[in-house]
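Page 37, continued from 36.
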């Protein structure tokens, strides 16, 4: 499997790992929209945690590490 060379990432949004994590977060949001209201507390926590986790992978890029 040969990979095509890519230009260096200029922002965290250029990172494939961030793009995939963001797609996952959006899919979880869509999937959980129809859950019962009794599950709201757990879903709110999940919805707060997932975006933070996807951004953490981009911090070393932002710092230049």
């Amino acid at each position: 499997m040969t990979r095509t060379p890519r230009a260096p990432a200029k922002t965290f949004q250029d990172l494939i790992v961030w793009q995939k994590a963001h797609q996952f977060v959006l899919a979880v949001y869509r999937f959980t929209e129809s859950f019962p209201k009794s599950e709201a507390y757990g879903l709110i926590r999940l919805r707060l945690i997932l975006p933070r986790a996807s951004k953490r992978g981009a911090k070393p890029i932002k710092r230049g590490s």
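The longest helix spans residues 16-32. Flag for discussion at group meeting. The chain has three helices and no strands.
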